[in-house]
Amino acid sequence: MSKYIEVYQDIKKKIENGEFKRGEELVSETKLSKQYSYSKDTIRKSLSLLEMNGYIQKIKGKNSKVLGHGRMKNTFLGSIQTSQELNQSQKYSIQNHIISLEKIPANTKLMEIFSINAPKMFYKVIRSRSIDGEHLEFDVFYFDQSLVPKLTKKIVEKSIYEYLENHLNLKISHSRREIFFRYATEEEKKYMDLKNFDMVAVIESVTYLSNGSVLQYGTTSYRPDKFSFISIAKRNK
Fold this sequence. Notes:
Arc Repressor Mutant, subunit A; Chorismate lyase; alpha+beta; 8 helices; 237 residues; 2 domains
């Protein structure tokens, strides 16, 4: 293993397990060099990799600042999880913040996605998600009111899926997701901590019940430096 990778992984582990907390400063490059018994060039490579992966922020003339976590590598991509489950399984503090909850008539796009012929009413949910205090996600979701007759702000704040599965006894099967990048909307700029970014990573998803019916359509936007997608491709021969 390369020396700088060894240092990178050690500091990364200490950030992820909370030994180095968000907002704290790392010690100087000189002290890190002495601590690990490696050259300053090796330490600089390690810090550059930590910054590239979203764990620290290098500040000219000052010590590096801990950001608290790296990119949210497929935490929300590989499975359908609630914020409660993520809080329990990850070392993050995740909070939902409701921006609006309203009933709207189906437009042409919703009718096509949900495969309906006659107009229906839908719940439209707009919320942001903070992770360790930073607003890094922005959600816009639509639910067919005939499947979800009652949706309240309290439910949205706590866990929509917990309500759907445990109170409405809906059997959620899978979600089809498309990933793309675009310029941030004015709403996203307002409700997300985008820093200097003017673009967002977006996951557009359609969630299905076990009987094949569409339960939910929506988009989730992410700040680019906190988003990473990992895919494994298998070669069949």
